[in-house]
Amino acid sequence: MRRHWLTRDGGAQLTLVFGGWALGPAPFARLTGAADVLVVDDYRNLDDALPETGDYDTVRLLAYSFGVASAAHWLAGHGLMCIRKVAVNGTLFPADADRGIAPETVAATADGLSAASFARFCRRAGLEGPAPGIDFAAAAEELRAIAARGPAPDPGFDRVWISASDRIVPTAAQEMAWGQSDTVRRIPGPHQPFAAGQTWAEWFA
After folding, report:
1. I need a labelling partner for 178 at 20 to 30 A (CA). Which of 68, 91, 139, 159 fits?
2. Which of 88, 86, 124, 87 is nearest to 105 (CA)?
3. CA 122 → CA 26, 116, 182, 183, distances in Å?
4. According to DSSP H, which parts of the chain are helical?
5. What pTM, to 2 d.p., does this model score?
């Protein structure tokens, strides 16, 4: 996995973010109100124990998009205790026709990945500005790895946010995946719902 420190001021609490596929740390860069924020991504393998988490008194987790299933698999393998776990626009079933993204869509995205197709993906996701630069071969390999890893065990998310206009992980699929849990909150907006002026506290509410 790759690490992106958004802030690292030596606070007592770490905000650990499992980001989405190929979008990097940019979606989270304008959120405010957390001393130390570590964004991780690239889920080709989940062997990294993230030893930096041991430097903090407490860790809270926000998992986004394909980071939701990836974080759940990672937690099952590494046993990190988090004081709060939040899922945003993702499910425990990343490649699933009913409860995630259809497997054939994931496969087609990996097989046809190019600068043009990735730019379309970013626009559909609601990402502002130009598409980030990525390693296309590595990004395609990551999609295949996420699909092959399959459904993740439920780590017990304390809050689940679902965007009303998600064109990446369809809103209806997310609703089916999470059911009628009282942890679910519905919000307006696209797949990428993070915006300037928001605080980390809002997402961990």
Report:
1. 139
2. 124
3. 12, 10, 31, 28
4. 66-78, 103-111, 115-125, 136-149, 171-178, 200-203
5. 0.97
Collapsing DSSP to helix, strand or coil, 190 comes out as: coil
User: CA 88, CA 93: separation in Å to the nearest integer?
Assistant: 14
Cβ atoms of 19 and 41 closer than 8 Å = yes
Q: Which residues pair with 58 in a beta bridge?
A: 13
Q: How many CB atoms lie within 10 A of CB 198?
A: 15
Closest by CA position to 100, among listed 156, 52, 168, 14: 168
Mean pLDDT by 10 residues, the chain (205 residues): 95 97 95 94 98 97 98 97 98 98 98 97 94 97 98 98 98 97 96 96 97
Q: Which of 69, 82, 77 is nearest to 19 (CA)?
A: 69
DSSP character at residue 12:
S
pLDDT of residue 35: 85
β-bridge pairing 36-41 and 2-7: antiparallel
Q: Measured between alpha carbons, how far is 200 from 166 in angstroms, rounded to an integer?
A: 21
**Under 8 Å between Cβ of 191 and 169:** yes
Q: 68 is written with which tokens?
A: 């939701």
